[in-house]
Amino acid sequence: MMKKFNLWPGLIISIFIALIVLISSAIRLDQVDKSDIVLRNAGITFLIAISCWITNHYILGATWIRGKAQKTGLALVACASVAIVILYPLREMHTENFPMMSLRGLPQDRKLMMMAFRGLMVGGLEYFVSFYLQLVTDSQNSRIENERLKQENLEARLSLLKQQVNPHFLFNSLSTLRTIAADAPTKQYVMQLANVYRYLLGNEQEHLTSLEKELEFARSYIYILQERFERALCVAIELPETSLSHRIPPFCLQILVENAVKHNIVSVEAPLSIRIYIESEMLCVENNVLPRMSVEESTGKGLNNIKERYQLLSNQEIEIISTSACFIVKLPLLK
């Protein structure tokens, strides 16, 4: 990715170099009728300088060139080449009074060396100016980015501390409610709800969890849903014991089950069926498609959350298969 091009420093430096050439040439000039040669020499120098600035800026910002030494070497060679391209058509220009342009009568190799030397002088100076300006800019951007990250980290920590208060209070209240509940179904429901919150609180900072723990959490969450929908929600879990030691990002199963309920009709007349199974080292969550007639627009946050976590943690992609009959999400099992 190329950095934003800034031409103004290059124009200023190029004008400065051209003025130096103009003044030094004018001092040597003792005949007024040769003033056009002085101006032409300064103009050519300006053209070389601005061309070298553009070339240096491109090379410094090129991500395909690795290493500072490679960039420096390539920049100097490129500037020498730029000078040759500009000066070679003017190699016979009559400028006896100006040694840097006195190329008439010189052997071909000497002419090329003189041209390249001029490009190296101008381009080298501009390269190190460009390099210094880039260091200053990168340093400023780095300080700004560090301050932004510190602020975001502070805000995130404060937000996390605030969010912990209510869940812990609710979890403690559920534990008390389970103790004082009179009938078994209520105790069971409260216990499963407490399990859900226990898992949420215990794994909010974890990047990966075992499939066994995730499945226990999913069973508690599914129990709560089935108490609500009863026979309208059918969930089949077909996971072999050998797969339970694998790991996945936490809350993935809960998000996929929640999405299935959110985007489909759940009724006794048209039950929603969810199947959780293993296929080709992938954890699969499949549901039949019973689209709601009226449903809030999907933001895709749940699936995007899972996608991004897999990319960050394992650089692997999840698979999504959507047909008119079924919707399947396949999650890679991590070691």
TrEMBL record:
Signal peptide: none
Keyword Signal attached: no
Highest taxon above the source species: Bacteria
Pfam families: His_kinase
A cellular-component GO term for this protein: membrane
Domain Signal transduction histidine kinase internal region residue range list: 156-232
Spans traversing the lipid bilayer: 6-27, 39-60, 72-91, 112-133
Assigned keywords, A-Z: Kinase, Membrane, Transferase, Transmembrane, Transmembrane helix
GO function terms (MF aspect): phosphorelay sensor kinase activity
PANTHER family (alphabetical): SENSOR HISTIDINE KINASE YPDA
The name this protein goes by in its record: Histidine kinase
Organism whose genome encodes this protein: Dyadobacter jiangsuensis
